[in-house]
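Entry under discussion copied across for reference:
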Amino acid sequence: MTADVLLDVRNLKRYFPVRGGLLQRKVATVQAVDDVSFSVRRGETLGIVGESGCGKSTTARLLIQLLAADAGTITFAGQSVGTSGGMDVRELRRQVQMVFQDSYASLNPRCTIEDTIAYGPSAHGVGWEAARHRARDILARVGLDPAWFAKRYPHELSGGQRQRVNIARALVLEPKLVVLDEPVSALDKSIQAQVLNLLVDLKRNLALTYIFISHDLNVVQYMSDRVLVMYLGKVVEVGPVGSIYGAPRHPYTRALLAAMPSMDPDHRGEQAALTGDPPNPINPPPGCRFHTRCAYAEACCGASEPPLAADAACGDHRTSCHMLLPGSGHTAAPIVA
């Protein structure tokens, strides 16, 4: 792991049991996250995209240990998480915070905004008065006047204001990494822009690192330095944002980008970029999991899973596709010299 890597995830896996029958025995498993590996560098924003059910949010919860992984390793700031002699969960959650999609459900309706934000520092040993003072400072940083908002309750705030409170609560512990799981998807477009610009300013002023999860490809393009594309629990492509959006390699990534709304009437899509639903994660297809919906699929695609391999022209852009793998057996694959 290089010095500028803040978070390193290797072979992360999480399966959920499906229970049925009179005794509620396990009858199947949902392969939500299956052998996922990636890294996040200090000071960057890594965007994670994919269809609903691809494993984005489950991956986020595994990172902050809200869910326990079935397999794999997480290394944060050079320390292994959850292992003997490594970083414990309490310390991890001080340095890694999360902002959830539902701004109202994330807040305690019986606590004032000031007490909600101050609770985190107090739980980590800061005196209550000092914690409340810190809460008021961070409220001002996210654009909410403490004189007006500190003593209010969540139901008295708008959706955008509640999300600013959630951002403040995440930042009050001065974390190094913030995981943002669909932080603006429930907001109006004009409010989305304000919150996104706030996040950009906070990242610059507080030297933060972000993992930004969203289904909105335009938002991910605006926020991210690198983008990771997931499909059915797997990483299918990862690379710099300019490379992913300008020259996508994987057919699934190309289909996602082709489905983006265009403001130019001369570039309206005439046909659906991708049809059908993803396969059932209880019984995913063998080989490349996308081959059942891929227009370029051949026999080799269902026979074996392609590795996430680096592109010769751009080593930081990696794709899992038989068409790009020399000697894979696909008719479009490069010829082995």
Remarks:
- The domain at 5-110+153-263+270-324 is CATH 3.40.50.300 (Rossmann fold).
- The first helix runs from residue 56 to 63.
